[in-house]
Specification:
By secondary structure, the protein is mainly α. Helix content is about 70%, strand content about 0%.
Length: about 120
């Protein structure tokens, strides 16, 4: 927020390397990359988490008190947004659908999904 993205990126990268793959630092890190208009770096930062979500190894659990769910929705949204910025409409569509399945009112996901070109 104060224009210190390089410093923030370094700190979020350190925090993201903590044991147990903490989701919030990864979400913040990807957000910083998107703020710098570097969607490929955002996707690279989220690659492992995205693979875990798609494989069902990372899912929302009610016992987490909602913290995991909030981060998971945010991470899926960031993957969708980065994919959209890179022109990967089918990937973006798939991730926006996942976001809406978790939280239909999340940010502008429904509008972004609607604005994507129709699937081939």
């Amino acid at each position: 927020e104060m224009g210190l993205l390089d410093e923030a990126i370094g700190e979020f990268q350190k925090a993201a390397r903590a044991p147990g793959r903490p989701l919030r630092p990864l979400e913040a890190l990807a957000g910083c990359f998107l703020a710098r208009d570097e969607p490929a770096l955002a996707l690279a930062a989220l690659d492992g988490v995205a693979r875990d979500v798609e494989a069902g190894r990372l899912a929302v659990h009610p016992a987490d008190g909602g913290a995991c769910e909030a981060s998971l929705v945010g991470l899926c949204y960031l993957v969708a947004s980065a994919s959209e910025r890179l022109g990967r409409a089918s990937d973006a569509r798939r991730w926006y659908v996942r976001v809406l399945a978790l939280d239909y009112a999340f940010r502008d996901a429904a509008a972004r999904l609607a604005s994507l070109p129709a699937p081939d």
